[in-house]
Amino acid sequence: MEIILAGIKQALCLLISFDPEVLAITWLSLKVSGIATLISLFIGIGIGAAVALASFPGRQIVVSVINTGMALPPVVVGLFVTIFLWRNGPFGYLEILYTPTAIIIAQAIISTPIIMGITLAALQQLPRKLRLQILALGATRLQMVWLLIKEARLSLMAAVMAGFGGVISEVGASIMVGGNIKGYTRVLTTATVMETSRGNFDLAISLGVILLLFAFAINLVLTRIQQRERPR
Amino acid sequence: MNDKAILEARDIQVRRGGRPILDVASLDIAAGEVLSVIGPNGAGKTTLLQALSSLLRLDRGEIRFQGARIGADMAPLDYRRQLAMVFQEALLFDTTVAANVAAGLRLRGADSGEAKRIVAAKLEQLGIGALHDRSAKTLSGGEAQRTSLARAFAIGPQILFLDEPFAALDPPTRESLIEDLGRILRESGATAVMATHDQGEALRLSDRIAVMHEGRIVQIGSPTEVMNHPVCEFVAAFVGVETILAGRVVKCGRGTVTVALDPNGGKGASSAAVGNPMSSSPSPGTEAPAGGVPGHAAAALPPAVAGGETTAFPPAILLEAAGEVGEGERVLCCIRPEHVTVAPGLRHPRTSARNIFPAAIDRIIPLGPFYKVCLDGDLPLSAYVTVQSLEELALRPGLTVTASFKAASVHLIRRG
Fold first, then answer.
1. B89 in contact with A, Cβ within 8 Å
2. Chain B interface mutation, best of A129, A133, A156, highest count of B Cβ atoms under 10 Å
């Protein structure tokens, strides 16, 4: 119990004192996970909408693959991204392994199926005739998709939350493709793992608290928007 | 091309699972016309509307709007921008009422000021001006459907498609909305095609009615024509003809014919027509009124011929009907309940009706402003009576009555 209290005390001290190393780690975590979520949003919403609105042979298999992807283990993603970016791998010439870019790629791969799956479910929940209604109002196909996405915006906000929450808290892939290099690829989760293994529980707890605070703050903002949009 | 037609469909077919779910040889819709498409669930009404509005891919045939062939001379999007559609569900966007009504205008890139002016005008026209800033998700069913109609009218459509727009509403709301829609359609002179399974709606709003069955239009014509002169048994049954009897014309007069009902055409029982000199002996307990019924066929009934031998035919019930049908032709006799009158007792009613039958009241079913009296007699008749008539005549189940209807009230359908 003492360790926990000491950790929380230490965390507060680090936060209040604006410790440069902690700030750098926090900033990198937000940047990497934010960019990864943004990339996932474009790909996930795009493909999710296409699968939701199209009918083609093998669609059910595609939906099953997307749903399976929502539970993709980060370490498996880390493994394959490492292999692909390895010096002798297919994309080894890019020389981006153990860089923040590699972490962004891995995190985007993790969150894309999550956003895709939620988008798919959200659009499928809209009344089928709404598409016909939008077309009958004189919309082009693109306008129709945009209006449907707008209609499903509350569910899509949940997709953003799930996607961001999934990547900012994952550690397996980040440590495998980023290497936890101090001042370069060290993010909140990898730093927490390292400090825990070293027995620096106070620092590990303080990093964990910061991680929780950020996850909470971002979700709070999105939840407030979502609740404001909900009809009373 | 039909010069008056704004929309023409030729030989259109839509198939699902290898079988046609819509198969319409020809349909013209005139500018300013209100056409109702009626039929039971699954008849193809919605499919027809979606095909006509280019929301559905045709497997065969063509649709022309103002002479231009959709998909060839005119892009489907350009065509869809000339029309509006209202569905059974209001299908509003999760935004304000005003933004919903402006949706079609925005998609067309309308000027913001102009859009605001049109939206305000349409909201007032539909009686929902006060809902301008309300969230669409908080509206009642009636308010939501009014918003949907305002959204449709806001774009000034050349054709308005209405797919059972009142089906999900409660009766008072539906009543007021039908009233308002009828007024707006009359005022605007809009062309409209409305799918409904409610004949009342169709009768009140339409210039023509098309009856659909199994993906085909089986009859199209004015409301009076369709209601009173159905072309087949299906249409007759669907438009509310409750008594449909098979028979054969045994005598032709001037504008009228006498029909001998098939033994099972009525109820298969021997005839007991009150005052009908040609019918067999009256049922026990019935009393033929003095004078009988003038003009009933006097010829003996034709004997049935079976296996080359003449056998005795059970005495047939005779009906007198107005129509130009040849002697010996097989027909269906259609009698609507609103054309049947009932009088207590077995007195010959003071009426010019040529068909008079004794019966007992089997059931009395309340239908809101009137009652349906189901009769148990030689013919399976039913009649509508007002609440006042029911009380004044003291009609009740078991009471012996005399049912009568005019020859002109019997519509004949030729059988093949």
1. yes
2. A133
Q: Give residue B227's Cα distance to chain centre.
A: 6
Contact A138 B81 (CB under 8 A): yes
B193 pLDDT higher than 50: yes
From chain A, which residues contact B within 8 Å (Cβ)?
127, 129-130, 132-133, 135-140, 143, 147, 150-151, 153, 229, 231-232
Give the tens place of pLDDT for each residue, A110-132: 999 999 999 999 999 999 899 99
Q: A126 — phi, psi (to 5°)?
A: -70, 150
Sequence-distant (6+) residues with CB within 8 A of B385 are B342, B370, B371, B373, B393, B395
- Cβ contact (<8 Å) for A231 and B93? no
Give the 3-state secondary structure of residue B86. strand
Residue in the structure block whose two tokens are 């900033």: A27
pLDDT of residue A137: 96
Lowest model confidence (mean pLDDT) among A92-96, A129-133, A195-199: A195-199
Q: What pLDDT does B119 receive? A: 96
What residue has token string 């809101």? B368
| Residues of chain A neighbouring B115 (CB-CB closer than 8 A) | none
Note the pLDDT tens digit of each residue in B329-348: 999 999 999 999 999 987 77
Q: What is the dihedral of CA B276, B281, B284, B288, to 10 degrees?
A: 30
- Answer whether B116's CB lies under 8 Å from B179's CB: no
- Written as six digits, the tokens of A143 are 């306008």
Calpha distance B218→B13 (Å, rounded): 15
* CA A106 to centroid of chain Cα atoms: 10
Residue A56: strand, helix, or coil: coil
Tally C-beta pairs within 8 A across A and B. 51
Q: What tens digit of pLDDT does each residue of A11-49 get?
A: 778 778 888 888 899 899 999 999 999 999 999 999 999
